[in-house]
Amino acid sequence: MRTKASGAAAGAGSKSKLPKRNGVLGRMKGTFQRVSFKKRRPKASRPNSVGRGRDGEAIGEDEFDEVRSRGVLRRWAYSLAMGIYTKMKTKKVRKPPTDKIDQTGLTALVKYKDMCLLKNLGGVQGVVSAIGSCVENGIDNDAEDIAHRREACGSNTFEKLAAAESFLRFAVGPFEYFTIFMLVILLVCAALSFGLIVTKRHGLKEGWSEVGSIIVAGLLAFSANISSFPMGRSLYKLSGVGNNRPVDVVRSGRRQQISILEVVVGDVVFLKIGDPIPADGLFLDEPSIQVDQSSMTGDSHDFVDVNCSENPFLFLGTKVVDGHGRMLATSVGMNTFWAEIMISTNHDYHEKTPLQERLNTMNFLIVKVGLGVAFLVFAVLLARYFTGNTEDESGNPEFSGSQTNLKDIVNAVVGIVAAAVAVVVVAIPNGLPLAVRLTLAYFRKRTSADHAILRNLSAGETVGSVTTLCTQETGTLMQSQMKVMQFWLGQDFVAVGAYASIAPNLLELIREGVAHNTAASIPTDKAIRSWTVLELTMNIELESYNILHVEASNSQKKRSGVLMRKKADNTVHVHWKGAAEMILAVCSSYYDASGSTTDLNDDERIKFEQVIEGMAARSFHCIAFAHKQVPQEEYAKNNGNRMLKEDNLSLLGIVGLKSPCCPGMEEAVVACHSAGVGIKMITGDNLFTAKAIATECGILRHGPQDMLDGEVVEGVEFRNYSPEERMEKLDRICVIAGSSPSDKLLLVECLKRKGHVVAVTDDGTNDPPALREAEVVLSMGIQGSKMDKDSSDIIFLNDSFTSVVSALRWGRCIYYNIQKVIQFRLTVTVSALLIISVAAISGEVPLTVFQLLWVKIVVEAMCALALASEQPTSELMEKPPVCRSERLITNIMWRNILAQALYQTFILLTLQLNKGDSIFSIKKKVKNAFIFNTYVLCQVFNVINARNLEKKNVFKGIKRNRLLCGMFGITIVLQAAVVEFLKGIGGTERLDVRQWFLCAALAGISGLIGWAVKLIPVPKKPILGFCGV
């Protein structure tokens, strides 16, 4: 066991090795030693969990752990000081010891507001010296010095949290391997077609025309994905941090203005009212400044006092609201607390959405089926050819064993391979993920007209499935603008216009309290100021008072106070303002209209409480004012202690403020209830105010007297429920009054465990845990803090609840539009596979490679775009939310798909397999053109059928979708151009008017079939739902 003497000897030995304290460096090193390592205690053994103290006395286990922890802290600080001293001694000049700076320690010092560590480092002045700076002169204005600091401690910039997607990766599509595979197949198809046409048909010009058409089709497929590339880039730019502004710093003793991006660790920055804090750091001056920390702590009214001695910690993202001074930057850029929060709430803007993942699963399955069909077609055609079951144009067998020319065999095999390749091309549904992106892009564009900005694409899908919406009242349900409606003074309300009857001395006290204890940035204070100026003719000269101390309001205290000295008579006064029930609790007397004070007994206190409850029942926010004059002898006895008195106050009066409901609020709430979306209001107001607001907005569908049990609870009651009791009462709860941010998080977690899809709106009360827990975060553009907007999915620029309902409607519209596109595209794919496979087995394939690609890429893409642009209807908000586990392809969709695909297969195969000219008197040479034209027109009519998956009237509202009407006309014009004028490329012949009419009639029958099959009921349980789709 080490003795005290040996410890002293060791300490003396360690001191003898230190260099002499010559100059500034020696004195600084000695200061660290005196502060942190004075009288180092010897190490104590720990026999039987008991040690020995510095005087040899026995100490217990808890005290032993405390002694040991202090020793570890001091040794760490000693190592830091020695590193600083060594580095600075070798340089001989005041340079930053960047090689020895522990940036993690500096970051933690401010993040955790560690006053103990700060004292061990010698206070704020010790940290200034440790990082090679100076309070008066700042850091050296030397390029090498600044670069060294930036390299060691980072720059004041933010890395892109979600890297932008490269052009090549984006271009190859949502499932890149199959897109590349399709392009390769197209090239193979082009080469085979060129060889086949040139060698067999003796037409080099004709061969090049078909090859060119196939290559153009491939380029169309490739460019389809490129079309949405700028959208992803714009979303990425929206997520960037671009707040480059000037700040004032001092370097080498000279004050200068630099960009905020150039601030480095060690810079001394000048702050004034309205300045955002440019980095994490320490405040250097006295007296204190007032800082708005709402963006960091969660309370929209969280103003804290920052001073050099008690609370010197400053954070990036906060803002100075009162005072001026200087700060020392200790952490910048990605090392700040702000960056840590942003990383935890970061969105990856180019990641696949859940719906796109499900579509990719379906696409892989379809491709596998297509490959199987292609192999079957290849095998059957090859077998039919080599068994002599195929005939040439003269009716003779194409293969006659050894008598067949080798060149003819090669040409035949090339044709068979081309047919199989066409099947694969048709089977690849590369347009479905693109259709999703186009739909979401259209949603983002249209919602901007409703004052909404979509920041996260996946939220556009999820918002349509929301089952519960958690919201607050101010700025969302109620307007942010407030107005004083009632004023209680003494024993009665003061009527509007009768304020002249109030005693002058009492009016002066009310004016003083309002002038010095309200902030123009807070809605309630702004309304009170306006009322005092207009009704009480407030005209206070602020220069006539000295402000001694200010205590800001926050979510715990719910009141603010000011201590001031009146210059005219040198008297000291305390003014308090805050929640009426909180102020009443600390009052012992009250003023009446004559200006005299009366003691507040129990009966009168009950009467005041009833007045507050009555105001709250009318959805008024109750704010009370209290005053106390501090006697000179009491103030002098406390040696000028600036702490505000919070007892024996005199109540000045109570005002009732009201925020009117947002326009259309009741209708919007009714729309949400009709759509199966539950609304839960979470507020910090008392129980009576919360009930009144919820009833006025329509959230509580019963009056306060007829309210169901459990609909309104207080935050304390909610958090004290047992887990089982909380889950049982969860669905009945509509309002949580007097809540805290932890109550909101607990509510969201319980809702998710019960299977709800939760959206949370935020109007300025920053609740990062609850926001991260919710599936969709809806922030308010006016009341919301910067961090809330950065972590949100959708921003509403007008802070209106009606915009939230609009987003719900558009979210559901997205889902149903995507289902329409899927039904249409799967109908084309299924019908094409059936036609090719059956025709290949029984005879010649009726559609060429170009014709298949034309239908697949041009016609299908244009029609899908038209379906994706369908606007939301009122019927969408009459349906329940779409469950996330519900099949994307429903039984209703399979019914419609199979009916249309079977009809198209029947019509085309009947025309193809018919021998001669018996059907419609169509010549054999124009039969292929007739089949191709009928097939394309069937897809055009199929678009109209897909406009409504369940209702029979598919023409309702068709005039509103001008894009669909335009695509309808463009598709017909392009089809007519291919058939009538580009027969060399399309492999067709011209059709007369009668034949065009017949094609349109056959295609129009698909509309009647679509109407008829909707009469067939289908079960709700999935029949063909597979692979998660």
TrEMBL record:
Residues 245-342 form the P-type ATPase A domain. It is found in: Membrane. Residues 1-57 are annotated as: Disordered. It catalyses: Ca(2+)(in) + ATP + H2O = Ca(2+)(out) + ADP + phosphate + H(+). Its EC number is 7.2.2.10. Residues 845-1016 form the Cation-transporting P-type ATPase C-terminal domain. It is a multi-pass membrane protein. NCBIfam families: ATPase-IIB_Ca, ATPase_P-type. This is Calcium-transporting ATPase.
